[in-house]
């Protein structure tokens, strides 16, 4: 098979499987946040507090939903390049929330920490991190 048709077939299979993917659901166990100081540096992360929240990533709808006390919806505008090495797996998303604010969402698996998973919501002035686990 010639390289160009092979590339087209591979792209079709990749995006076709993404579009037909079932939503991925996570539960949170705790949450922490930080915000920017006046000098553009970040404050220390807050202590983690318990948080029992359902997070859904639906690639077919390009939507991430965080079902906290106030439901947060994030429209996925771009899928970033996945980082995967011996220490971490990072899946990035460029998003816009339901109040039209831009943010970056990261799903990070820390391989050297027993595959601990975290879900980051990063805005220009504030960041949130949830400790998460898969829901079957």
Task: Describe the 3D structure.
The radius of gyration is 17 Å and the shape is globular. 14% of the residues are buried. It is 12% helix and 51% strand. It is mainly beta and 136 residues long. The protein has one helix spanning 3-19; strands spanning 24-35, 49-50, 54-58, 63-67, 72-79, 83-84, 88-97, 102-110, 116-122, 126-134. Strands 1-3-4-5-7-8-9-10 form an eight-stranded antiparallel β-barrel. A hairpin with a 4-residue loop joins β4 and β5. The termini are far apart. It is built from one helix and ten strands.
- State the helicity in percent bands: 10-25%
Strand order, main sheet: write it out: 1-3-4-5-7-8-9-10
Strand content: over 45%
Radius of gyration: 17 Å
Give me the number of helical elements. Answer: 1
Oligomer: single chain
Low-confidence stretches: 1-19
Query: Strand pairing plus helix content: what structural class?
Result: mainly beta
User: Which outline best applies?
Assistant: globular
Strand count, sense and barrel status of the largest sheet are: 8 strands, antiparallel, barrel
Mean pLDDT: 87
| Beta strand count | 10
- Report how far apart the termini are: 40 Å
Element pattern in H and E: HEEEEEEEEEE
């Amino acid at each position: 098979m010639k390289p160009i048709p092979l590339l087209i077939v591979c792209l079709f299979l990749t995006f076709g499987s993404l579009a037909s993917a079932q939503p991925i659901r996570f539960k949170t166990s705790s949450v922490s946040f930080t915000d920017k100081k006046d000098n553009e540096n970040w404050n220390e992360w807050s202590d983690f507090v318990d948080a029992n929240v359902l997070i859904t990533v639906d690639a077919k709808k390009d939507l991430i939903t965080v079902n906290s006390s106030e439901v947060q919806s994030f429209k996925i505008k771009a899928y970033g390049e996945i980082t995967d090495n011996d220490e971490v797996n990072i899946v990035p998303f460029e998003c816009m929330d339901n109040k039209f604010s831009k943010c970056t969402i990261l799903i990070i698996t820390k391989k050297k920490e027993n595959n601990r998973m975290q879900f980051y919501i990063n805005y220009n002035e504030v960041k949130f991190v949830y400790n998460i686990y898969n829901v079957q």
